[in-house]
Amino acid sequence: MILSEKTLDVLKNFSTINPGIFINPGKTIKTIGKNKNILAEYVADEEFKQKFGIYELPSLLAILTLEKGNTEIDFTKDSLKIVSLAGRRKMEYRFCGEEMVTVPPEKGIQMPKTDIVFDLSAADLEIIERSVRVLSSTNIALVSNGKKVKIKNYDASNDAAATSELEICDGNGDSYEIIYKVESWKMYPGDYTVSVSSKGVSHFKNKNMNLQYWITNEPGSVYNPK
User: Fold this and answer.
1) Strands 116-120 and 201-206
2) Could you report the per-residue pLDDT of 6-63, keeping only the tens digit for each?
3) Which residues contact 31 (CB under 8 A, 6 or more apart)?
4) Label partner for 15 (CA 20 to 30 A): which of 5, 31, 145, 179?
5) In CATH, what number does 5-100 get?
6) pLDDT for res 68
7) Contact 1, 46 (CB under 8 A)
8) What are the residue ranges spanned by the domains of the chain?
9) pLDDT tens for residues 153-168?
């Protein structure tokens, strides 16, 4: 098997959510944050024939991307056999047990009633993430005064810290402030449809890939319909 560049890139994103991963047979790959405040799911083009665990996904990806497109993997009971450079280099990467990584629930999340829906463009997502890095923000909030919807990043522990706001769309009369921790804002670059429930969870669905995230709304979030 040769993993596509797209699958490798998504796995790299998943490794920022949790460095360990457990993959079940099939095409669906899931990961969950160690604090269980983000769950991600991707349906790959490749199909995995067996279940296996990787304790340090970043190190495996570093090996697999040394020669992109020229690295083949083969599965044994206990390890991955990795062959590259036209067979001149061979490596073995051992699996870990399911108990050694944080494993997502088998059943997907059933979204409660959706209260807020909007589109988040790839360009706006990139601006938000760059602003978070520059300001060392700890929190992101989706904020509406009923007329305009903005995404704000700030440091919840420091009232004197700089903040940033980005207007993303017109409001519908509802006012709200939905709060997230920056550590759970780990989406792969792209355009998303975002559905938010005031019951405590937000759903980010990529428009161009079979990729989605569920993120926990933090305590202190408020929703006031018109």
Assistant:
1) unpaired
2) 999 999 999 999 999 999 999 999 999 988 999 999 999 999 999 999 999 999 998 8
3) 14, 17, 18, 21, 39, 40, 104
4) 179
5) 3.70.10.10
6) 64
7) yes
8) 5-100, 116-224
9) 999 888 888 999 999 9
- For domain 116-224, which architecture applies? Box (3.70)
State the pLDDT at residue 226.
Answer: 82
Query: How far is residue 4's CA from residue 175's CA, in Å, rounded to a whole number?
Result: 43
Asked whether 225 and 115 are in contact (CB, 8 A), the reply is: yes
pLDDT tens profile 210-222: 999 999 999 999 9
Cα 184 off chain centre by: 8
Residue 190, sorted as left (phi over 0), alpha (psi -120 to 50) or beta, turns out to be left
Rounded to the nearest 5°, which phi and psi values hold at 14? -60, -30
Distances (CA, A) of 169 to 80, 119, 122, 130, 166: 47, 8, 14, 20, 10
Instruction: Determine the pLDDT at residue 3.
Output: 87
CB–CB of 149/173 below 8 Å? Answer: no
154: amino acid identity, one letter? Y
Hey, what amino acid is at 18? N
* pLDDT mean over 184-201: 96
The structure tokens listed for 208 are 């161009």
Integer Cα distance of 144 and 45 in angstroms: 38
Q: Minimal CA–CA distance to 184: which of 202, 210, 211?
A: 202
CA distance 151 to 1: 41
Length of the chain: 226
| Assigned token pair, 164 | 């940033």
pLDDT at 201 exceeding the cut of 70: yes
